[in-house]
Design a protein that fits this description.
alpha/beta; 5 strands; Lysozyme-like; five-stranded mixed β-sheet
Length: about 120
């Protein structure tokens, strides 16, 4: 098992319901050449959490920062739901228990991007 030190929060940058977990997986495999979806988890507007890339494997979600991080992607670009934030909080609690000392970050801390288009305070 790799050492996990960080959790990095993302958004999918589209409010189209068509760009869901399966569509992201396909996009990452076909258009980006990844072996699987780059995120370890996705969370849809209803608060459903889908497991993506195996947590034992480095993700492909934050350039240069994947080796010790877990990537979580909230589906959407704006108007995130209470259900999404609740599911994210619950997932974070589980991950923080499993990976002691882990810190939470946004993608925008590592790249010049608005991702995830909300403040961590909104979740935490």
């Amino acid at each position: 098992m790799r050492q996990i030190k960080r959790i990095i929060i993302h958004y999918s940058a589209t409010d189209s319901g068509l760009y869901n977990h399966d569509a992201i997986t396909n996009d990452h495999r076909v258009n980006r050449g990844f072996r699987d979806i780059g995120y370890h988890y996705t969370i849809d507007k209803s608060g459903n959490i889908r497991i993506g890339r195996e947590i034992e494997l480095a993700g492909a979600h934050t350039l240069g920062e994947n080796y010790d991080s877990i990537g979580i992607c909230l589906l959407g670009k704006q108007n995130f739901t209470k259900e999404q934030f609740t599911a994210t909080r619950n997932l974070l609690k589980i991950l923080l228990r499993a990976f002691k000392g882990c810190t939470i970050h946004t993608h925008s801390e590592y790249s010049n991007t608005p991702c995830p288009n909300f403040s961590l305070k909104e979740i935490l």
